[in-house]
């Protein structure tokens, strides 16, 4: 039983453009605070600027997770995703 090869039509797999609807201001702000906070922390650490390090650390540890928890469907159940190591891919990192 030999396998048959079928020619592919070039335009067959073009899906087109769709607007992204899954992300909103919460995810965008989480990315913003994470990246800017990390950059501020490392830049300030390089130049020994303690206040910048504290602000960068605060942005990454407080300002980034806050919109991520607001993005959750049921924020009060988020601890289950973190504590369930056997079944949750989120808790594994």
Question: What would you note in describing this structure?
Answer:
With 93 residues, the chain is an all-alpha fold. The protein has a domain at 24-83. It is built from five helices and no strands. Helix 1 packs antiparallel against helix 3. The chain is extended, with a radius of gyration of 22 Å.
Short note summarizing the structure:
The protein contains five helices and no strands. The chain has 93 residues and is mainly alpha-helical.
Structural topology:
Layout: H1 25-46, H2 50-63, H3 65-71, H4 78-83, H5 89-92
Helix pairs in contact: 1-2, 1-3
Class by alpha and beta content: mainly alpha
Would you list the SSEs in sequence order as H and E?
Answer: HHHHH
Instruction: Give the helix level as a range of percent.
Output: 55-70%
What spatial form do the alpha-carbon principal axes imply? extended
> Cα distance, first to last residue?
45 Å
Query: Main beta sheet, described?
Result: none
Strand content: under 5%
Mean pLDDT: 80
Using only CA atoms, what is the Rg? 22 Å
> What is the number of helices?
5
Unreliable segments (pLDDT under 50, ≥5 consecutive)?
A: none
Could you give the count of β-strands?
Answer: 0
Keywords:
extended, 93 residues, 5 helices, single chain
């Amino acid at each position: 039983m030999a396998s048959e090869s079928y020619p592919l039509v070039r335009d067959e797999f073009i899906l087109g453009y769709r607007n992204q609807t899954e992300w909103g201001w919460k995810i965008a702000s989480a990315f913003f605070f994470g990246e800017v906070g990390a950059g501020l922390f490392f830049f300030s650490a390089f130049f020994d600027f303690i206040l910048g390090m504290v602000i960068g650390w605060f942005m990454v540890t407080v300002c980034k997770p806050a919109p991520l928890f607001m993005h959750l469907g049921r924020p009060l159940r988020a601890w289950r995703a973190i504590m369930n190591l056997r079944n949750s891919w989120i808790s594994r990192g």
